[in-house]
Amino acid sequence: MSTLNEFLVQKKEAALAKLEKAQQQSDVKSERYYARARALGRSGVREIRIRDFQVISDSPTDFAGYNLGPNSPELQLGVLGSCLTHITLIQAAVRGVSLESLEVEISGDLHPLAGQLGYESIPVYPHNISYQIHIVSNESSETINALHEEIERVCPIYNLLKNPQDIQGEVVLSKPLAD
Asked: Which UniProt keywords apply (predicted)?
């Protein structure tokens, strides 16, 4: 059976090459990421476009959805899981940590009455978020603990959620075209 160790060789080469390229640039700038989401006609399904990819987000049927995809809070937990998984792979690769397999589980709470009268103290966002990284490895507990510390130190989405962020927003109003 194939394990992640073969992949980690490739990941290490790619991670070190990307780092070296950035270090050689005289004027390194932050990368800007873009996503676009829109509600589709009669269904209300949310189409998320990122680069050449499309992701569908929808509500369960009990909330006027068609259950065609995960809802936004579920996607957010999935994004955290994806990022923790990716950063674990990168850190294991550059540190030479052997991984047979890797799986991340994420959970969080979202109360249906959050913010409503009598429930004002309950957050309107996912909270009580927790994760477990399941690793199969012959490495020592000390090695895996050091890996975990580094994962939490450098994981972008983990740190985005842990640290308050300023978000700027505006509404751009357009009038419908006359028939």
From this structure: Coiled coil
The residues pairing with 36 across neighbouring beta strands, listed in sequence order, are 49
**pTM over the 0.85 mark:** yes
Domain region containing 129: 4-21+71-162
User: Based on the number of CB atoms within 10 Å of its own CB, is 141 exposed (0-12), middle (13-18) or buried (19 or more)?
Assistant: exposed
Q: Which of 136, 126, 92 lies closest to 106 in space, CA to CA?
A: 126
Angstrom CA distances, 82 to 89, 153, 161, stand at 11, 16, 14
Helix (H, G, I), strand (E, B) or coil at 127: strand
Q: How far apart are CA 85 and CA 104, in angstroms?
A: 6
Q: Is residue 170 part of a domain?
A: no
* Residue 38 φ/ψ, nearest 5 degrees: -145, 150
Q: Is residue 101 part of a domain?
A: yes
CATH number of domain containing 87: 3.30.300.20
List the beta bridge partners of residue 134.
103
Instruction: Quote the CA–CA distance of 93 and 99 in Å, as a whole number.
Output: 9
pLDDT tens readout for residues 76-128:
999 999 999 999 999 999 999 999 999 999 999 999 999 999 999 999 999 99
Predicted local distance difference test score (pLDDT) of residue 1: 58
